[in-house]
Amino acid sequence: MGISGRFWFVAFVFVTLSCETCTANTKDDSPKCTSSCGNIHNISYPFWLKYDPKHCSSPFTLLCENNITILDQPAVGRFYVHAINYENQTIRVVDPGLFQNNNCASIPLNPLPFFSGRVMYSYALFSTPIFFLKCKNPVNSSMYVDTAPCINISAVTATSSASQPNTYGYVKVGDMEAGDLDEGCSTEWMASAMVNSFNLYNTSYKYIHNALLFGFELHYEISEPCEQWSTNAKCFPRSIKGFFQLVWELIRGFFAPGYTIYVGYKWLPSNSTDVRWAILFNVGLLFLLKCILGAPFVIVLLIKKWRTRHLSMYRTIEDFLHNGSNFVPIRYSFSEIKKMSNNFKTKLGEGGYGCVFKGVLRSGRFGAIKMMASSKSNGEDFVSEVATIGRIHHVNVVRLIGYCVEGSKRALIYDFMPNGSLDKYIYSKNAETIPLSVKKMYEISLGVAQGIEYLHQGCEMQILHFDIKPHNILLDENFIPKISDFGLAKLYSTDDSIVTLTQARGTMGYIAPELFYKNIGGVSYKADVYSFGMLLMEMASKRKNFKELAEHESQTYFPSWVYDQYVKGRDMELGDASDEEKNIIKRMVITALWCIQMNPIHRPSMRKVREMLEGDVELLQMPSNPFTCSEDIPLARVETNIDPSCSNTELTWTLSAR
Question: Domain of 168?
């Protein structure tokens, strides 16, 4: 045992000897008091009525109002007490709102309680949740029970009949899963009842209302003063948990007049002299010793851990840079970076990666200086971006000019793109933004496709980007697209058809489903194809794929809506677009629908995607529904544009729409 360990042992013995030995027993020494309220007789430990004598106080307080026993706790709610079972340690309660109209139109006032932390109640075994639902259309389901004519769901939810004239009310008994909620339905309220007392399935709402009137059971926990909660001052400090609980009880006593603590063999007010002096002496002594001796050790440990983590990160980056024998970009010092950016005067953008500033390079050209934010991945994002983009050159991939590594300061220097990122031309309604023509948007999409094809097949190693989205497509002065931000990219051998990832990478709305659902298929370059398809759909429509305030509910997820339109032989509403522009958009949309197929096997390669964009729209066939899970189809059938048959088993890809 070291010096520190011997000191804490002596301190613990000293504090322990300053307290008396605890021999109290909760069951034997609890107050022998009983009372009654209405139909509840012999109310005894661990319950007591609020205005009973102080010597009868117990852990659980009940109220008696108008001869009705009431449980009223902020963490639980306000309920009528119908029965107490001391043997099973349960209390049966009923929501008071069910008695307002004395008929089945009465509904609960309290939401279903959520128990956490120090609340000493929990749901009993047979207490089952009941969900009150509001639906826009009638629902014919064995799981739903119609509330009519008992409840007018519009009146319950305070919804005006003018805004929602046709509203239907239902209840669902038991746990609610994602697939249980029909389209157009929403959960408005939750209650609880006992399944073992009533058959709640395949019955009318009146039976469910009777079950609610019977109530539901809560299980209560009785804590031993010396062993679990240590609220007995004579037991302190038998446990660390008891020590902190005792501190909390004291704090509560200062702000809650009349609050009691079990001391020795009786309950005393927490602000009494006996309780206060018994606790304050030990609390003050122990905290003083802990602050004097414990704080320096904690500070030293934190500093050592911080330095170890950062040194490891710097070493990883330096090892990578020194091992790169054919490394092309220039290494700058941080002082040069500050001078080039005029002390970081002009900010071009900001994101999770850090900030981008405008700078002037040694040659006099403008550059974009990306200052990397602090990373939790030992500099892997920096290494990944430099490793992938530092050795390649393509007209549709942003060029890395140089980098800076000095301690925790890391920067990447790129060519300056005066027209910014693609997202502002897709989403922005700003009058200052020059709108791009359909033909120009098509040319940009073709350039992005060529860039991704180069990453997949044009290098010695295949480069998977994993974050294709409008924000990462930059436009130069001639609106030529450049793929940027390789912080999530990975290098793999060209022989690897399936790659391994420890976690999903990318941005919600563009991530391929196989990165989350392993049973769909293995992760490969098809993940970038999916992301490009989502990007291409937004470029064709000049709007986000997911629109919360759509005119029609079917248009909320745009790819699904546009697929239905083309299957029915309709084109998108394009205003006064020419026939040539309509054909271009149709070519982009059909290609995008091929790219976002749920199963990666059914998606074309980027080479095939480029050929589809360059080809004749009349030769393109509509793919199967991208939002269904079909049987495996050989890749050759997709490559030759043969329309595959698809099963009716639908697999909704919700993550891409949120």
Answer: 93-220
